[in-house]
Design a protein that fits this description.
The chain is an alpha+beta fold. It has one domain: Hotdog Thioesterase (Thiol Ester Dehydrase, Chain A, Roll), CATH 3.10.129.10. It contains three helices and five strands, in the order E-H-H-E-E-E-E-H. Strands 1-3-4-5-2 form a five-stranded antiparallel β-sheet. The protein is elongated, with a radius of gyration of 16 Å. The two termini are 15 Å apart. Residues 137-142 have low confidence and may be disordered.
């Protein structure tokens, strides 16, 4: 499996903060999505093409986030993303959200590839390298 890590950085927008002046907790899941989409883009995969051309979607089946420190308006945030587990029909991404040297949150999301009918579907072989799969790893379903 690949240990490729992708990073994306941005500034916290005022709209992402709550009355206490810190980033509202649900925004971390949005940031993880940004990390995941940019991870795929950096690997040469446009998620829109996977949906339009291959008829697949990446359904979230589990999400976990551990908050360690607050982010505030105008902080520069970096989301590190990598594939932590992968099979033909399931992929798990891990994330580390930082501001400078401070770890703000860590988390994972687990996804199932589904077809237009929302039934589980196998990832086409052309995408194996992006997710760290080798052809031999997919010979027997897990």
């Amino acid at each position: 499996m690949s240990t490729r890590i992708h990073e994306v950085s941005f500034r916290v927008r005022y709209a992402e903060t709550d009355r206490m002046g810190v980033v509202y907790h649900a925004n971390y899941l949005v940031w993880m999505e940004i990390g995941r989409v940019e991870f795929c883009r950096a690997a040469g995969i446009r998620y829109r093409d996977v949906e339009d051309q291959d008829g697949l979607a990446l359904a979230v089946v589990e999400a976990q986030c551990r908050f360690r420190a607050p982010a505030r308006y105008d902080d520069e945030v970096t989301v590190k993303t990598w594939v932590s587990a992968v099979r033909r029909k399931v992929v798990e991404f891990s994330y580390e959200v930082r501001s400078g040297e401070r770890v703000l949150a860590t988390g994972t999301t687990k996804h199932v590839w589904v077809g237009r009918d929302f039934r589980p579907a196998a990832l086409p072989a052309k995408y194996y390298p992006a997710f760290g799969l080798e052809p031999a790893e997919t010979a027997h379903p897990r």
